[in-house]
Amino acid sequence: MQVIFTVNKYMPVNTLKDHKSEQRIVSIRVWLALVFILLLAMVLVSRLFYLQVIKYDELSTRSEENRILVQTVPPVRGLIYDRNGNLLATNRSSKTLSIVRERVDDMDQLLSDIGNLVPLSDNEQTRFKKQVRRRRPFEAVPLKFKLNDEQVALISVNQFRLPGVEVNAELVREYTEGSSFAHSVGYVGRINDRELKKLDPALYSGTYTIGKIGLERFYEKLLLGKPGYQEVEVNVRGRVSRVLKRVDPVPGQDLHLYIDTGLQDAAIKAMDGRRGSVAVLDPKTGGVMAMVSNPAFDPNLFVTGIAYSTFDDLNTDIERPLYNRATLGEYPPASTVKPVVALGLLSSGTVKAEDKIFDKGWFQLPGSEHKFRNWKRGGDGWINLDKAIYRSNDTYFYNFAGKYGIDRMHDFLSEFGYGRKTGIDIYEERSGLLPSTEWKRGAYGQPWYPGETIIAIIGQGYMLATPMQMAEAVTLVANRGKHVQPRLVREDLPDVQRPQWGEDIELKEVDWDAVIKSMENVVSHKRGTAHWRIGRNLPYRMAGKTGTAQVVSIAQGEDYDAEKLKEFQRDHSLFVAFAPIEDPQIALSVIVENDKGAANVAREIMDYYLIPKLKENAEKEGK
Amino acid sequence: MASQDFVRQLDEPYGFSKEPHWSEKFHVDIVLLGFLLILCGAGLFILYSASGQNTSMVIRQALYMVVGVVGMIVIAQIPPRMLMRLSPWIYAGGVALLLGVLFVGIQSKGAQRWIQLPGFRFQPSEIIKLIMPIVAATYLSKRPLPPSLKDIIVVLAIIGIPVVLIAKQPDLGTSLLIGASGLFVLLLAGLRKRIIFSAVALAVPAVWGMWHFIMREYQKQRVLTFLNPESDPWGSGWNIIQSKIAIGSGGLYGKGYLMGTQSQLNFLPESHTDFIIAVLAEEFGLMGCLVLLGLYALIIGRGLMITFQASSLFGRLLAGSITLTFFVYLFVNIGMVSGILPVVGVPLPLVSRGGTSLVTLMAGFGMLMSIHTHKTFLDIRR
Fold first, then answer.
1. In this complex, which of A34, A52, A234 lies closest to B248 when CB atoms are compared?
2. Minimal Cα–Cα distance from B379 to chain A, Å?
3. 0.80 surpassed by pTM
């Protein structure tokens, strides 16, 4: 600056001649500048022309893509009703907090901000982070479910500093009857990795749950429905400003069951909290009217993701609440097979109904010292088939075991559903075990021993059956061979493959009469095994069969206290029955684990179901 | 002289050269004022849409415009000679303020650009925008032209000091623009062609040096993003991509006023400040842009005319520099919004929201008016 001053002071300025040429220099430069300005202006105009005319199509498309978001509209899951139209599974609106990854700058910061407003468990965060990685672009991933009103308000007040956060109303599955139908209806839960790989992503867009067990799993495809979509205009924060176009989703199909909620409740009440299972069938259709597996659990726990600790408690509980005893539990059917075996003996000509043997309390194979004992030490004296059943005499059956043979017995019993899945419409089912010589060779590589037939013929030894199989077998007896299979859903639905196995069993009417008559005697004859418990003051004709299963093994390697261990070694009591004999309307099997009283449970259930009907009929006739 | 003939011809229809217009007594150039007011009106119209129909923002902007016009008329009263006389002092004052910013300035958004005074705060770099061409024009108008090497070095030093100080704030965009306004004076003063060419040759290593030693990370990022915006579409490339989409989707005639989806749904960032031209382009299309560019062309044309007609060498250099700098703002802004220049944070002159730059620009036009309406002692036109 000093330089400027000193120089300025002594410089001669603005001589006329200098001035003119200097002005000319500047003028020329201004002209040059004008040329540059025009050139650069042309650059700008051609750039605008390029963007707005040449690239118009591409850029206006991208502007539409920006503005318009195609959102899937998840379908409403089909409802599940019992036979009287009571809702068993419904969908309840619930507020869900979800996040769109693309709109979030700092996810960890956002999560901690949200955590300051509403409590976030580690569980929720890990699940969310897992899901964020595999979501589709711009899909909102749920972080927290079932927000209460206060939490919804907190989030919306702070919305401005929570970019990418959405609170959406979502339909959440609800099981209105709680634990009653945990095993039959089952439950939905969060889609896991394994399921995600298998399912069709288009169908599950916007749906976060999938049927895990029970009907929810078996009829998943039908219950799910088909998603629709809507084109919405959104701003940069993903807020929807209006809906441009909408294709409605196809709601999932509703299911109507044979289940009778009242009967189910009566069965649960009759079980009185004891471990065990009840399977009640409608003999006309095979419809499952009640299916109890005790203890049960609340399926609502699983819908939006169960806490690890809760699941762990359920999973390791010694009483195994998660386990569906009715279709997965394999028990020795014990004496409950005797009516079916008797039919086999009769139809094969092994015995005639009036043939008698003398029971001295045990049976010995020729050339063997081993005594196969009757359950009643003293023996029952002279017995025919009728008495053998109502007294549940073992010796009678021991006598004909050798003559009948295991393979004939296997083939005959399998017609009644033993040793094969009943084909009920849930996936959780086991086939039980119906032994044969062939089976033993395959399983043990050993020949069949005659002694094993003797045990098998009274439903012990290798033989195992699920409560549902026992109910199926007694239903076929009630139907006099007319084939039905257990099923929960009433509708005949397309796209659903229910395994069909068996056909009507053709036997002589006299054989049916004989066996059914002896089953009636189990209850009504004063020496019948169930008479003392349930046979008195019976207002309808019931056919039944008792059973006592010896507990062969218990879960090993686990630390149960001695008391519990003792309890778990007691015999199970079993009972199969149907009624009324002249027109069977109900058939059932009951198993009470490590306790007596299966017959009493059956009587309570049947009374609940039949007595109102009897009254109704009586009133009709009275008029 | 061909140039003078042209000037006279252009002059005739406006009737300024023969007898003084009444407005010249108040040192107001009525033509320039008219163009500026039309542009300001258009600016408010666009701002209303760009701000999401924020009336209070538009009113505040209108108030700044009133302040700017008043400031312009006040500055127009100052004769160019006085500016020349004062120039060393205001230059010294400006540099002192810049030093003040470095030591006692206020930080905001990672840069230290402000000085706090009781009641308000301001950016000294805005004042330097005005001072720079005055000082350069003052110095060179007193030297024989074309400038000697020594004079060039002196002018470069005069330019360089504030440029470096502003770059350190850091505010690279402003410092480059201020440097440009000083260099324009040098170029208009007849800087020899071989010096220009050798400067361009030197620019290549200079750019390399700047990249490695002067530019901050965010500045480098801007350049990298400019070169390939799609590389980071959710981060720093977002602005450019979205503004290109906004402009392109406007097409020839636009989507209609207040109907621009890019701007109204907030996809376009900074829509009311630096990227406001994209709002116009989206809602009024290429036609709207051409109308706006036409308005700018009228203002720049008037500025160049004043340059040609300036009675003194100082006036000619100063008017030329102010007009050229105005064009550079316009070019850099539209260039960056349309994606042919990196995003450097230059607002669209007189249209983007913001009071400071508006008042500064208006003050510059005030100087143009002063040059045009004050007859000098030595009128070279006669």
1. A52
2. 11
3. no
Distance of alpha carbon B87 from alpha carbon B135, whole angstroms: 5
Task: Give A489 to chain B, closest Cα distance, Å.
Answer: 50
Does residue A48 sit within a domain?
Answer: no
Q: For B291, which residue in chain A has the nearest alpha carbon?
A: A45
Residue A133 domain-assigned (yes or no): yes
263-322 of B, contacting A, C-beta below 8 A:
265-267, 281, 285-286, 289-290, 293, 297, 300, 304, 307-308, 313, 316-317, 320
Residues of B in contact with A41 (CB under 8 A): 293, 297, 331
Which member of B281, B313, B340 has the closest CB to residue A52? Answer: B281
Q: Are A26 and B317 in contact (CB under 8 A)?
A: yes
Q: Closest chain A residue to B1 measured between Cα atoms?
A: A24
Instruction: Tell me, yes or no, if B133 comes closer than 8 A to chain A by beta carbon.
Output: no
| Residue B177 structure tokens | 């623009």
Instruction: Flag whether B374 is in a domain.
Output: no
Residue A470 CB neighbour total at 10 angstroms: 34
Report CA B98 to chain centroid distance, whole Å. 19
B354 in contact with chain A, both atoms CB, cutoff 8 A:
no
Backbone torsions φ then ψ of A490, nearest 5 degrees: -75, -40
Q: Which residue has the tokens 């206006």?
A: A60
Q: Which chain B residue shows the shortest CA-CA distance from A242?
A: B265
Q: Which tens digit of pLDDT belongs to each residue from A62-104?
A: 888 878 777 788 899 999 999 999 999 999 888 888 888 777 8
Q: Which domain holds residue A533?
A: 327-622
On average, the pLDDT of chain A sits at 88
Residue A164 contacts residue A238 (beta carbons within 8 Å): yes
d(CA A234, CA A242) in angstroms, rounded, equals 8
Number of domains in chain B: 1
Put simply, the answer to whether B189 touches A26 (Cβ < 8 Å) is yes
In a domain, A291, yes or no: no
Using CA atoms, how far apart are residues A516 and A385, in angstroms rounded to an integer? 11
Provide the ipTM: 0.87
Of A211, A238, A256, the domain-final residue: A256
For A377-415, the pLDDT digits (tens) are 888 899 999 999 999 999 999 999 999 999 999 999 999
Residues A237 and A331 in one domain: no
- Tell me the residue range of the domain where B285 lies: 45-51+82-344
Tell me if B20 is assigned to some domain.
no
Amino acid at B237: G
